[in-house]
Design a protein that fits this description.
single chain, five-stranded antiparallel sheet, alpha+beta, 3 helices, Heat Shock Protein 90
Length: 136
């Protein structure tokens, strides 16, 4: 799907992810992980990439037996979110800088995250493995 680079477009993306992943047999926790990650990436792109200027963001998902891939592309200025260092989550809240937890959270809930800049586009690829159900 393609959405305008506006915050009011984000809820529709979450709904589409849920429908797509449920239809592909993903668990509720996996759906929530992907929704969190995609919403965080889109919000950062809107806020920091487009800075309130018009633009669009494309989200393309593919399900396979091993899991799900989500490709997020935009034409904002080049920026590799994976270059942002992980925050020190062991320090006290008073000692931490504001912000910086978004990509950290994405890395925690998504199995593989890759970035490339190609043909004038930022391209972020997220992969979430499909976990097999285990029974005791």
């Amino acid at each position: 799907m393609d959405i305008p680079a506006r915050f009011d477009a984000v809820p529709a993306v979450a709904r589409e992810i849920e429908q797509f992943m449920k239809g592909a047999g993903f668990s509720d926790p996996a759906v929530l992980d992907v929704q969190l990650a995609v919403e965080e990436i889109i919000a950062n792109t809107i806020r920091h990439g487009f800075c309130g200027n018009p633009g669009s963001i494309s989200i393309h998902s593919t399900a396979a037996p091993y899991g799900l891939t989500v490709e997020i592309t935009d034409r904002a200025p080049p920026f590799n979110p994976l270059s942002v260092p992980s925050p020190d989550v062991t320090s006290s809240l008073a000692e931490r800088k504001t912000g910086g937890l978004g990509i950290y959270l994405v890395r925690q809930v998504i199995d593989t995250v890759t970035y490339r800049y190609e043909d004038g586009k930022n391209i972020l690829l997220l992969t979430k493995k499909k976990q097999k159900d285990t029974f005791s």
